Every structure is written in C-alpha cells, then in structure tokens.
Amino acid sequence: MDGGKAIQLVLDQSTGCGFASKRKYLFGRVSMKIKLIPGDSAGTVTAFYMNSDTATVRDELDFEFLGNRSGQPYSVQTNIFAHGKGDREQRVNLWFDPSLDYHTYTILWSHKHIVFYVDDVPIREYKNNEAKNIAYPTSQPMGVYSTLWEADDWATRGGLEKIDWSKAPFYAYYKDFDIEGCPVPGPTFCPSNPHNWWEGYAYQSLNALEARRYRWVRVNHMVYDYCTDRSRFPVPPPECHA
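Structure tokens predicted for Xyloglucan endotransglucosylase/hydrolase:
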C-alpha cells in the first residue's frame, strides 16, 4: 500500500485492530494523515490518541472519529485525561468529508497548552492552569496509538444508530506519522528544555489566524461541549472558566 508507507486498519464482526508507537514521549507534537471509513460508518470509532498506559492515574489526549450514516457529517470527539480524570469531551462536526482524502490531525502538547488541530485549524485548546489547581499532564510520558473498533452502544447519535455489518469490512487508512518530542527513556533534560521549538514563544498561544479559525469552528461546527452540559455538570468544572 502506497509504497509501504500507509497503514490500513480493518474492522469486521470478529475483530478490530490498531497500532502503537515503539516509544513514549513527554511533550512535543504528533501528527498523522488519516482517511476515514467511507459511506455508512455508523457505530464505528476510528481513534488517534496519546496515552500514558498507566493503570490508575492515566493521562490521555484523544481524537475519536465517530462514524455516521451515509450523507451525515462525521464528528470528531476530543477528550483530555489528566491525573486520572477525563470526562472532558467536546465534539465538532467536520466541515468536509474525511473519507474522500487524507487530512492531517495533530496534537501539540507543551508546558503552556494542548492544542488539537484538523489540518491547520485548531479545534480545541486546553491551557495549563496548574497554578489554579486544575490538572494538566506534565509528568507522565505517553505513547501514540491508533485503533478502529465497534462502539455502536454510544458512537452515533448516542447509540441510536447501530453498525450495519453487511457493509463490513470497514477500512481506515493512516500515513505520514510524524512526532517531534522528548523520547522516554531519553535525555532527562529534554522535557524541561525551554529551547524545544514547541515551547517557543510562537507556540505558547494561538496566533491571530489560529484564533480566528478556532472561533469559527466553535461557532459553526461545535455540537457538544462538556462545559455547557448542565445535566452532567450542574456546576461547570473549574477549567471551563479558568
């Protein structure tokens, strides 16, 4: 496939699949080009994420692409686990068909903030507010993982739309995996080195163009934000107004 550079994940009734990086990293940027399942993909989840792979106090940064019925938009759900606590889901409807071509999905993780990008458009920013006693992943290295699995109990319209196994097998494609970060084990000074490019001034906050794009996504394409879900959080979590 593609000169051996692309990875194909397949899902059928007997199995899902995935792959993982050989090393873990502490801070940096990871990106992947992904082409998602075409057509009727309801009930499937294609994921690209970082995970500390620790049993109890887990850190994790998630992209989860939620399949849908033909003609309906794909949603991407992001979530952030810090010091073992997650439940920070946000969902955005993609403004293009992600099954027609490869698009680049990126996670930037620095001491200042975490940013999720679709192509060059930031769809989520989570700032480091440890000074306000808000959890932020700073100490546990994370591996990079991708999986394709069946989750029709929740993935599409809250589980109302079930997977159509007559359309199986389902395929998602990945290529051009890129990571720049501090490998662990590796040089111990790396994670705290202020000269790492991702810690540079230009990356400490969204620039003017990114800020405009970010507002555009949130106004026009965001369909769920845990911060405004009063049924789950009668009092918004502290990071929502930090």
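The radius of gyration is 18 Å.
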